[in-house]
Amino acid sequence: MAYKLVIVESPAKARTIGRFLGKTFRVEASNGHVRDLPKSQLGVDVDNNFEPKYITIRGRGEILDKIRKDARGASKILLATDPDREGEAISWHLANVLGINPGDACRVEFHEITGKAVAAAMKDARPINMRLVDAQQARRVLDRLVGYKISPLLWAKVKRGLSAGRVQSVATRMICDREREIDEFEQVEYWTIAAMFDCEGVNLQARLAALGGQKADIDSVEQAEAALARIRAGCDYALRSVKWGERRKHPAAPFTTSNMQQEASRKLGFTAQKTMQIAQQLYEGIDIEGEGTQGLISYIRTDSTRVSDEAITSVREMILERYGEVYLPESPNVYKSRKSAQDAHEAIRPTGISRRPETVKSSLTRDQMRLYKLVYDRFVSSQMTSALYDTLSAEISDQERDCLFQFSGMRKRFAGFTVVYEESRDDESEDVESLLPDLKEGTPVAIGEPEAAQHFTEPPPRYTEAALVRALEEQGIGRPSTYAPTISTILGRGYIVRESKRLFPTELGLIVTDMMKRHFADIVDIEFTAGMELRLDEVEEHGANWREVISDFYGPFETTLAEAERVIEKVEVVDEVSDVVCDKCGAMMVYKMGRFGKFLACPRFPECRNTKAILKEIEAPCPKCGAKLLERISRRGRKFYGCQKYPDCDFTSWDMPVTGACPECGGMMVRKHNRKGEAWNLCVNQTCRHRIDVTGAEGED
User: Fold this and answer.
1) CATH 3.40.640.10 correct for 189-250+387-456
2) How many CB atoms lie within 10 A of CB 245?
3) How many CB atoms lie within 10 A of CB 354?
């Protein structure tokens, strides 16, 4: 029986789509790219107008043989790879392999994987978009030229195994520059003064704003003591100004790729790579109980906040039915995308608004459920009304002593979209609600004892993954699909490490970045790299000749490269020697840096390949055998705690055990933390869950 052949990228997607299309179709997976530039050589003929040399990727031969065999018996072949530049390029390569004319209507796009979306896409086949293909080729060739020309130089001048890249080198520089900002930061002392005021039985804590008609800038203990003396001498404090107001807080737009990565980092603790892996699973299809395999979210690589009219209509109907008219705006909320956004796809949203997180929870893993709920709630909240807050600001002063204090407060009057979702922030600040008393101007108040507090200015914070993704996006560096692999690469190369969710440069990262800044200034220059991104975008958007774009870059780059090879001297990266003896050859082991941080390695590599994890003891003993507990790192890079006597004792815990048993039930206590840095000890006994704050206050969880 004749059939139509549909080729997608992943086996999971193939299974989902095959179920929708039925027996008259055969769906095969290419497993991603089938052809690429060779790994063992440059693969770009710079003397022949930058002609790329494509070869079949190792391991794809058997896959291509099966696809060719299926293609011979097919009445029609449709290429349904992902709807982006990479997907278009994969379809173009497949067309070349299978002898398909790219100008024929052979290309279909699935922006979401549902029965309705797949059926609609199959009726809308089009030719391969060569602008998208050329845009991908331009990026691939440019990145190959940068990587394969500079990396051997780093191998020769620093150490083997290093790499440079158009986006990764800029990302590394940003982290290194931030570290130097922190190192060079000079603290500035300043003081704040606050006092409690009794306003007819209502206590208001207000902060000193001005003294003698001047802003209260206090930068020494002497100035603070003088200000306190002046404040205490006042005896005619009164409310001089009371202003009520209203503040509206608007919902955030539905997710783009980058802010999904940011929010998953802040709310769920996911790395960018983990977020994209789980999002891919949700997009390609999950076997939902009672429904079969369904794609739960729309396409996950997008920088647009646009949403289809159909999706808007369905979510507005749900909001009206579930939350009521007061939570539904008169007209749909519309969000502007960034100027640099491609707008080729919708924002990331659930494919079916009726598929609420709680209804599919049993079919999802814990992490799939958490990310799906994040996407679902963000989308629903984006089409809800704004939250309303009452605000109050008051001024308290002693006019004779000219001391001015200010009080401000805020109280939520209407929750609006916040009943569903609120966006997190990198600085972890929150809108703190307070009591808003009925104050009247002219009311005399009694001042309590004023208190002065010493502070010091803080250096800029180190990047988290979320903050780095946001900074790269704001600077126009890379594109949504590049952030996760970029961070993974610079971690894997040992240029940076992740500690307590913050990104630190290593000595190697600082050395390589300094070398790049001195000799390849354009490659690590943020403005130059962002401008290059715009030129690459012109290939897709305006049909710019991709070879000319590469040629304009390569001429100056080749000159810079030749000069760097001539002047750069060998840099000796000396490994720090430990006091641990290699138990295989007797050498003193040295500290090395890997993607999960420091580890011990034998200095006689490759003759001796012995390595050891750096194990840190904690105070609490093993609750099973009483031996020491060690801090360890799992294969996925997650910290956990295990017994020193493993494998004889198999005790492990994701949370750090603490000394002392639970005072209520005698069970084991573990240390817990929240995003604000607060910590407490918690009983692991599910029927107890007794909690002890680290400050000593006790309570039930």
Assistant:
1) no
2) 10
3) 9
Cα atoms in the Cβ-side hemisphere of radius 13 Å centred on 529: 25
299 is catalytic: yes
Query: Please, which contacts does 584-591 make with residues 24 or more away whose CB atoms are closer than 8 Å?
Result: 584/608, 584/610, 585/610
Q: What is the pLDDT of residues 538-594, one digit of tens each?
A: 999 899 999 999 999 999 999 999 999 999 988 877 778 888 899 999 999 998 866
Which pLDDT score is estimated for 342?
60
* Residues 198-212: tens digit of each pLDDT: 988 888 899 999 998
The model's pTM is 0.80
Q: Distance between CA atoms of 122 and 105, rounded to whole angstroms? A: 11
Residues 7-43: pLDDT tens digits?
Answer: 999 999 999 999 999 899 999 999 999 999 999 999 9
Range list of H helices, 99-249 = 115-122, 130-157, 168-184, 221-233
Catalytic residue, chosen from 3, 148, 190, 299, is 299
Please list, residue by residue across 413-437, b when 16 or more beta carbons sit within 10 angstroms of its beta carbon and e when fewer do. eebbbbebbbbeeeeeeeeeeeebb
Q: What tokens were used for 400?
A: 């004779």
Instruction: Give the separation between CA 417 and CA 335, rounded to whole angstroms.
Output: 15
pLDDT digits (tens, 9 = 90+) for 244-296: 999 999 999 999 999 999 999 999 989 999 999 999 999 999 999 888 889 99
Q: What's the Cα-to-Cα distance from 390 to each of 17, 243, 248, 606, rounded to whole Å?
A: 51, 11, 9, 68
Question: Which token pair is 267?
Answer: 């709310």
Q: How many CB atoms lie within 10 A of CB 82?
A: 26
> Minimal CA–CA distance to 613: which of 580, 650, 648?
580
The answer to whether 42 and 148 have CB atoms below 8 angstroms apart is yes
Residue 444 has pLDDT above 80, yes or no: yes
Domain 257-382 belongs in CATH node 1.10.290.10: yes
Distance CA 496, CA 487 (A): 9
CATH class belonging to 3-128? alpha beta
CATH code for residues 138-184+462-567: 1.10.460.10
β pairing state of 74-79 and 3-8: parallel
Residue appearing with tokens 């279909």: 108
DSSP E strand boundaries for 415-557:
446-447, 451-456, 496-499, 502-505
CA 642 from centre of chain:
29
pLDDT band at 697 (very low <50, low <70, confident <90, very high): very low
414 beta partners: 388
DSSP reduced 3-state for 421 = coil
Other CB atoms closer than 10 Å to residue 7's CB: what's the count? 26
Dihedral over alpha carbons 211, 212, 214, 218 (to 10 degrees): -40
Instruction: Report which of 669, 546, 686 is spatially closest to residue 619, judged by C-alpha positions.
Output: 669
Contacts for 654 with CB less than 8 Å, ≥ 6 apart: 638, 640, 641
Instruction: Assess contact for 406 and 210: CB atoms under 8 A.
Output: no
CA 392 centroid distance within chain:
36
Domain boundaries, the chain: 3-128, 138-184+462-567, 189-250+387-456, 257-382, 577-700
- In this prediction, residue 339 has a pLDDT band, given cuts at 50, 70 and 90, of low
Report CA dihedral (507, 265, 532, 513) to the nearest 10 degrees: 0
Strand partners, 601: 590, 611
Judge contact between 327 and 384, C-beta under 8 A: yes
Give yes or no for a contact between 357 and 369, defined as CB atoms under 8 angstroms apart: yes
pLDDT above 80 (res 614): no
